[in-house]
Amino acid sequence: MIDLKSAASGAERILIAGHVRPDGDCVGGCVATGRYLKNIFPDKCIHVYLETVPERFSFLAEEELVSNQVADSSYDLCIVVDSSDSDRLGDAREAFEKAGSTLVVDHHVSNQQYGKENVVVADASSTCEVLYGLMDPEYVDERVAESLYIGIVTDSGGFRYPNTSRKTMEIAGRLMEKGIPFHEDMDRCFYERTYTQTQLLGRTLLASMRVMEGQCIVAAITRRMMEFYGAKTEDIDGIIDQLRIIKGVEVAILLHETGHQEYKVSMRSNKVVDVSKVAAYFGGGGHVRAAGCTMRGSIHDVCNNLTEHIEMQMM
Ligand code: AMP
Ligand code: MN
Ligand code: MN
To answer: In 3-state terms, what secondary structure has residue 196?
Structure first.
């Protein structure tokens, strides 16, 4: 399997990019890759492109490495982190398509292997776990380690999701040895909440609806709600987990209104339903227990269409 050092050795200009609306795994993975390659090749031109980084993870994104703009399209190598298809690259897509060489590192079952080189490990907890396997530990300094740790912790739900394996824990242990503030990282990723986030959470939970005899729960966040609380998209993170852990719930669905009668759908399941199949049917993707897609129509219609497909799997 190709490693990051050999992938980068022949390239002078390197772009590292994640997916639109980057999460912890995406931010952590991009920053770790950039910092790691800088440690090995200090003289190469290495850029990390990330769309707006959520406040929670912004401390990782150092200014000299990370930008929310793609400088141009003349890269020898583009490394893509945590993005299952090239549609999710946003503004980095053109640079990706024009790059001399491309490497895709990911852990989505639905990954379309769209790079020249692809390292896709579907049973890995996170892309950061996969990235660690492509690194020489000698060049993993504290900053690389903390970035990878944040990615692993966020995508494994703090080592709670079934995608967590012995290997996940072993890698996390090795990263801890680099001296990272793992207790603070855990707080930052899961427990800290702004007042706005707390209000939006409360309001969303109050207005949730149970269907399929309580086995499925649906909640919607409208643009009006977002405006009322002065909330940003990233303030929605974590709300779906509060729905998923309700006793008796198999599938949690969160709809986020992104346009007129247009919703970004997030789904989580606990034991039975493969939500990636449901999401894929509606043009999205993801993992067995966490997936998403975009759907159009009224909340009522979107909800009915989704639950119809969920019910088919529960029969
Ligand atoms: P989210 O609910 O946004 O946290 O997404 C859960 C999982 O589903 C993530 O791993 C995403 O990569 C994947 N996902 C979400 N939305 C889409 C989409 N529109 N297309 C493909 N995959 C998606
Ligand atoms: Mn991601
Ligand atoms: Mn991921």
So the answer is: helix
- The predicted structure's pLDDT at residue 1: 80
Domain boundaries, the chain: 4-191, 195-314
> Are residues 48 and 177 in contact, defined by beta-carbon separation less than 8 angstroms?
no
- Please tell me if the domain spanning 4-191 has the same topology as the one spanning 195-314: no
Nearest CA to ligand 1 atom 9: 286
| Cα–Cα distance measured from residue 244 to residue 239, given in angstroms and rounded to the nearest whole number | 9
Ligand nearest to the Cα of 290, by number: 1
Nearest ligand, measured from the Cα of 88 = 1
DSSP state of 63: T
What is residue 73's predicted lDDT score, i.e. its pLDDT?
87
The pTM of this model reads 0.88
In contact, 212 and 307? CB cutoff 8 Å: yes
CATH value of 195-314 in 3.90.79.10, 3.10.310.30, 3.40.190.10, 3.40.50.300: 3.10.310.30
pLDDT mean values, one per 10 residues, the chain (315 residues): 95 98 97 98 98 95 94 94 96 97 96 96 97 98 98 95 96 98 94 96 98 97 98 94 97 98 97 97 94 97 98 94
84 CB less than 6 Å from ligand 1? yes
Architecture of domain 4-191: Alpha-Beta Complex (3.90)
